[in-house]
Structures are given as structure tokens and as C-alpha cells.
Amino acid sequence: MGAGQSRSSNALVVPQASQALDQLKYEVAQELGIQIPQDGYYGFMATRDTGAIGGHITRRLVQIAEQQLAGKFTR
Predict the structure, then answer these.
(1) Which positions ≥6 away from 61 have C-beta within 8 Å?
(2) For residue 60, what are the CA distances in angstroms to 28, 31, 75?
(3) How far are the Cα atoms of 1, 3, 14, 19, 65 from residue 45, in angstroms, in the given order?
(4) CA distance linking residue 72 with residue 75, whole number of Å
(5) 3 state SS of 12
């Protein structure tokens, strides 16, 4: 990277993952009974709700990774 350029720590390595993560976000929110704003603006949502969604997404992603790793080592 050149001078003045920075890479966001939230940049996706696989751009197609964005759609899958978005879908996961809506699934988790629905499971928790949290309504995601249709306009995409989260400024009026409670921090507790956005944190709950993020935390559950992280748990789900870790669970998926663990299952994939377990499958690789049992073959």
C-alpha cells in the first residue's frame, strides 16, 4: 500500500461474502426478534440490539469454522 492509503480492518477478502453476511445478519435479527431498519440506517437502533446481532453472527461464524475444521481432520 502506498503513502496515505490504509486498508480497513473490515474489508472483506472475498467480496461475494458480503451478500452471505448480510443474509446471516437478517436471519440472526429475526431469530432474536429485532427489526432491522429498512433504510439501512442503524443510528436509531439500541446499541444492545446491534451488539446482540453482531455477537450472535460471530458465534455462528465460529461454529461454522469449527465444523469445517472438524470435517477436515476426521477424513
Answers:
(1) 24
(2) 9, 12, 23
(3) 36, 37, 28, 22, 29
(4) 6
(5) coil
- The one-character DSSP state at 3 is T
C-alpha to C-alpha distance for 54 and 25, rounded to whole angstroms? 8
Contact call for residues 57 and 25 (beta carbons, < 8 A): yes
pLDDT tens track for 43-71: 999 999 999 999 999 999 999 999 999 88
CA of 56: how far to CAs of 5, 6, 27, 61, 74, in Å? Answer: 32, 29, 10, 9, 27
Locate 71 and state its grid cell: 470435517
